[in-house]
Known about the structure:
mainly alpha, 237 residues, 9 helices, globular, 7% strand, 2 domains, minor pseudopilin epsh fold
Amino acid sequence: MTKRRDFLKTVPAVAGAALLANGSFISSAEAKTKVVNAQGEYVLPPLPYAYNALEPFIDEQTMRLHHDKHHAGYVRGLNATLAKLKKARDAGDYSQVQILSDKVAFNGSGHFLHSIFWQNMSPKGGGEPGGKLAKAINMNFGSFAKFKAQFIAATSKVEGSGWGILACEPDAKKLFVLQAEKHQNLTVWGVTPLLVVDVWEHAYYLKYQNRRGDYVKAFFNVVNWDDVAQRLKMAMK
């Protein structure tokens, strides 16, 4: 399993074009280290280059608005929603949990994908990859040219707003070109699953019919916490 820290720090992962999921300006390495502040709130990572560094391909005004307004908005939204969820837990009031969960997914995915996106670009970028990345692309797509053609075609055809993604399925070490419509669909890109429960109807309908809540409660009687703990250990390395 890929830990989220490595996902954000090392790989040009899950968003843009990469392997597998962040002024006064600081170095690229420094920009990747400060994920949360002293209060445990997510922070907006500074750009690892100047606002105008990607011109003429991406203009300075776009970069300022994109980073300082749009990305910053996701960070504020994520922190605010997490605070509301804490209040809900403290009050034992889960009446708004569906709405708040959606907002966590929306703002969290926006924050994490943008944090990768800035690192996926460089004033010295372009050309073709080398080394293991080139080998992986050639193995999975046939050639860099074929990968690039598929990536451009898929990304250009995302319905509405969204992302083009080169992702790695780490168990089989396979690469996929994916489309992400909007960007959340009730998940947060970059997290490592530790405990999952299947709530498609085929997983519970014969016994629980439409009583999904009863099924989820029953699930906790069979959770293998040793397995969950091992996954957490791997993710936190």
